[in-house]
Amino acid sequence: MNPVSDVLPSNSEAQVIRAKLHAWFLSHGRDLPWRRLPSPYAVLVSEFMLQQTQVATVIPYFERWMLRFPTVEALANAAESDVLQHWQGLGYYSRARNLHAAAKVVVAQFGAELPSDPALLIKLPGVGAYTAGAIASFAFDRPAAAVDANIARVLARLGDLRLAVDSTAGAAALWEHARGLLPEVSGGREHTSALMELGALVCTSKRPQCLVCPIHEHCHTREPETLPFKAPRKGSVRLDEDAAWIVKNGALLLEQQTGRRAGGLWKLPPLQTRPDTEPVFQTVYPFTHHRITLRVFEENPIGSAAPNQRWFPLPEVLEGAALTAPHRRALESLLAR
């Protein structure tokens, strides 16, 4: 028995659900900057920023980004260091690199016009099935399925899905449900926005407001807070990271990172051996399934800087270097002292 197919809405019920979502969204949809003028480029930027980041956090970053890189050509022609500088604080910097790379592809292969076909969008760097569907829906009003965390929660409860939504079978069931609710020709922008908004404002992970839900009578679960099911999380692995605070002639020594995740970003130089002294700064931050304790120790300058290191004048370091979020917090705290 397919845990979703028995409760998929019929075509007529899907039409009723869409109508109710439409009416609710007109009254309750939030005024978000990328909704005011849903240009394809603005939607592209917002979708990359919203991956693993909450709306409230994204809004100021989005607005600053659009001032600095107002068009896809402006982004494509920008230096990576400038892109990373304007992304810092959002984390997951591979998103910034992929967005930069996607802009270059759009300019080079599509004449700076973002394609509307999800089959073409999904070929862009950093664009998966959800992002392709979201861009097709929001930017071009196409009836394309898009399943993010909010929509997954709504659909899992609507169909009383008893599979883990992060499993292959569970994800397939959600996408089947999402496609079954789509309008036929157009209207994808409002439909997808309404589902997403319902998950964000009403069908929340904790204490869902079922009594005010516009599609409550179509919902098949009687235990909404237990859904969606997810696979058990891996236990956190604890790691230590020791770094050096080295100042000489009013300048701070930083080291540029390499690699796929953090390449191009700056951080305090790592220490191979922890000193006997007390750290001048300490914090704990998450990274994937790790919890990392960052300790910063004051060190005296010895020898010359390595090829991947550079001295930054203290008054300019926060503005002049694209920093990882934990090291930026360390610098802000230590400079404030």
How would you explain this protein's 3D organization?
The protein has 337 residues and is α+β, with helices and mostly antiparallel strands. It has helices at 11-28, 33-36, 40-50, 55-68, 72-76, 80-87, 94-110, 118-121, 129-140, 149-158, 168-181, 188-201, 317-320, 325-336, and strands at residues 237-245, 247-248, 251-256, 266-267, 281-287, 290-298, 309-313. The strands form 2 sheets. Strands 2, 3, 4 and 7 form a 4-stranded antiparallel beta sheet that branches. Strands 1-6-5 form a 3-stranded mixed beta sheet, with helices on one face. The longest helix is centred in the N-terminal third of the chain and has 18 residues, at 11-28. The chain is globular.
Number of helices: 14
CATH topology of the largest domain: Endonuclease III, domain 1
Q: Indicate the radius of gyration in whole angstroms.
A: 23 Å
Instruction: Kindly state the number of beta strands.
Output: 7
The major sheet is characterized as: 4 strands, antiparallel
The average pLDDT value, as a whole number, equals 93
Strand content: 5-15%
Architecture (CATH level 2) name of the largest domain:
Orthogonal Bundle
Characterize the overall form.
globular
What's the CATH superfamily of the largest domain, by name? Hypothetical protein, domain 2
Based on secondary structure, the structural category is: alpha+beta
Q: Quaternary status of these chains?
A: single chain
The N- and C-terminal alpha carbons lie at a distance of 63 Å
